[in-house]
Amino acid sequence: QVQLAESGGGLVQPGGSLRLSCASSARTFSMSTMAWFRQAPGKERDFVASISWRGVATRYADAVKGRFTVSRDNAKNTVYLQMNSLKPEDTAVYYCATDSRLYYSSNDYYRENEYDYWGRGTQVTVSS
Fold it and tell me: CB within 8 A of 68, min separation 6: which ones?
């Protein structure tokens, strides 16, 4: 069983920055695609970003392109989400997820059901 633990959420003013972290217990972390999703109150959970096992390929939702950066440190079994120029509409619970298929890049990387394990989430609130 893989455990994922997000951290780094909090309250930030519009225009500010936060960096989220997600630590994985998986021994196969370095072989797996990782992703970030978010869920705002009353809305469905949406794709934010994904990163391939070596960190070469990254993908972003249009709403965060140019503002968010996903990265990973395979030596630390951790994936990050650097969020800059935050807006009130970025307010949500942010989840990290992993695809347990090794060395695999899905064309449906933006779909929740491509990922097998999820963290419990961390709250990000953007408000003045």
Answer: 48, 49, 60, 81, 82, 83, 84
Q: Which residues of the chain have pLDDT under 70?
A: none
Neighbours of 88 (CB within 10 A): 11
For 82-98, what is each residue's pLDDT tens digit? 999 999 999 999 999 99
DSSP 20-69: EEEEE--TTGGGS-EEEEEE-TTS-EEEEEEE-TTS--EEE-TTTTTTEE
Cα–Cα distances in angstroms (integers) from residue 113 to residues 16, 85, 119, 121, in the given order: 32, 29, 14, 17
pLDDT for 44-62, tens place per residue?
Answer: 999 999 999 999 999 999 9
